[in-house]
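Inputs:
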Amino acid sequence: MILENDNFLMELTKLFQQQRVKNSGSLCLTMKRYDGRTKPQPQLTKKQRLEQKQASTPTIKNPPHSPTTHETGEYRCLVRAVFGSKKLSTIVSAKDINRFQLAYSNLLKLNMDTLKKKAKESKAATTGQTSTNPNSNIPSSPIPTAASSSSTAVSNQQKKTPTTPAKKK
Amino acid sequence: MFIHSWEEFAKQAERLYLNDPNGCRLCLKYRNEKLLIRLTDNRTCLQYKTKYVQDMKKVEKFMSSLLRHMASKEI
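Outputs:
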């Protein structure tokens, strides 16, 4: 189903919503350069291949598809989306590319939000927590004594820090 | 062929695409909490898989530049 750019984006958001509701299935987006051909180029038959081999020099002079694309001069971009059995596609021409690209990337950003956030930082944070945890566990026993001596939290921390390396040593 | 680092993927993908802009396609597969990006020209296939939002941003940047190039006059 070939749609206009705006309609395509609208339908695509619907697909994302469906996916979210179902919570299953994968959504495929494809993009490729589009030069006006709707059918694939037919493969050469054996005869043709043999002919090409025998007369290799004249075939080089007229490569089959490059002239047509050069005549049009401008390429367009074909974007497809498939979710389950639903298929959408649109063709973006060069003059619409700015608008479409902005809208498209915004849409993807909005809808691909189940991805995990901050991989490296969270990993670093967890490692930092695990490294601090044993330290905090070790001085956990002197904490009540320090608290009973009615000292400030800052002094507690200052007391903890020198004690832990001393214990480690 | 899976490529594990994004930089490597972007580099190779760009080379593959520029080698044959008409025969390449870029696929994005989004499944809950996973994103797979694939660039292929039916001979070699480059794939990159991610779970994280930061990579999503890079993917999106790469994709929009590719989209621009696909719809431009350049060969």
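Remarks. The two ends of chain B are 26 Å apart (CA to CA). Chain B has one domain: 6-70.
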